[in-house]
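Q: Structure tokens for this one, please.
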Amino acid sequence: MSELNFALTLFIAIAGPILAISYLRPILVPVLNALCVESMPGSIGAQFWVRSAYVLAVAGTLVLALLFGDFMGEPLAAVHRALLLAAGGCFVSIAVITRRVWAPVQARLAKPAVAAPRSPIAATAASDRWV
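A: Here is the predicted structure, written as tokens:
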């Protein structure tokens, strides 16, 4: 086993998902905050899910890289395989996260808008109009 190939594979398998989730983080936190049933101080619910996304994406990509990495060949072949595995791991992880986040968003969008309740005086005034 080539130590250089192993180190390159591990670096790519860890850096790839971190970069991908970091790119999504600015939009992911507000969406997750909006989906939380009860708002928590400091958006702690959204922070939990973002950190979970980091762990899942890195762990999934690392498992793929360690199982299917090319540690015996040329360094370029190892980098090629590591990039493919990191891209595949990121894609699957982010697809799962996106699917889980989109389901409640879609349910919320499907609900009809609820009109604000009228006060008894406003309701009476609206029904007494002669137009």
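A few notes: Residues 3-127 form one domain. The radius of gyration is 24 Å.
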